[in-house]
Amino acid sequence: MSEPINELRDILRKLRAPDGCPWDQKQTLDTLKSNLIEESYELIDAIDSKDYTKIREELGDVLLQVVFQSQICEEEERFDLNDVIKEVVEKLIRRHPHVFGNVDAKDADQVLKNWDAIKRREKGEDKPTSILEGVPRQLPALQKAHQVQIVWG
Predict the structure, then answer these.
(1) 5 vs 136: CA distance, rounded Å
(2) Over its length of 153 residues, how does the chain's per-residue pLDDT go in tens digits?
(3) How many other C-beta atoms lie within 10 A of the C-beta of residue 68?
(4) In angstroms, what CA-CA distances link 145 with 133, 135, 149?
(5) H or E element, residue 143
(6) Crossing angle for the helix pair 29-49 and 52-75, nearest 10 degrees?
């Protein structure tokens, strides 16, 4: 029996194949943006309700969006799901030197400060030059304000 992630990838390949599903075939990164946002908010609602059956379902829906969009990028010969996974693995190791290196972090606040400093170094920045630097443009206003407070607070 194959691994569930490989089964999911195979299903998406079949859905996007010429003899697959017309709806899935016509999807692009742009057309799937709203699905990703909707699924993320549904996951947040499930987490807030502490309904673990629903959380599992919604995590699956978010994962589907990641795999679906990775499949589109693979078809465009840009990257594949393995590249996405490798990148996040490397990032987690780099940004957790207190676990995978020799940096001390006495508490969660120090971890966040280290994470932010590492992230800025990776982008070649010493300090943010704009109050909105690094804050996603599409973020809702309230979340944008929260991000600004974290960086400049």
Answers:
(1) 29
(2) 579 999 999 999 999 999 999 999 999 999 999 999 999 999 999 999 999 999 999 999 999 999 999 999 999 999 999 999 999 999 999 999 999 999 999 999 999 888 888 988 888 776 666 666 666 677 777 776 766 676 555
(3) 21
(4) 12, 9, 6
(5) helix 141-152
(6) 160
The parent domain of residue 17 ranges over 4-91
Q: Please, are residues 48 and 34 in contact by the beta-carbon 8 Å criterion?
A: no
- Only one residue has tokens 């982008």, namely 123
Rounded Cα gap, residues 59 and 67, in angstroms: 12
Using CA atoms, how far residue 109 sits from 6, 113, 114, in Å, is: 37, 6, 9
Please indicate, yes or no, whether residues 11 and 81 belong to a single structural domain of this protein. Answer: yes
Largest pairwise CA distance in the chain:
56
Where is the domain boundary, 47, 70, 91?
Answer: 91
Q: Give yes or no: residues 15 and 35 share one domain.
A: yes
Model pTM score? 0.82
81, 105: one domain: no
Q: Which of 40, 68, 91 is the last residue of a domain?
A: 91
Structural domain count, the chain = 2
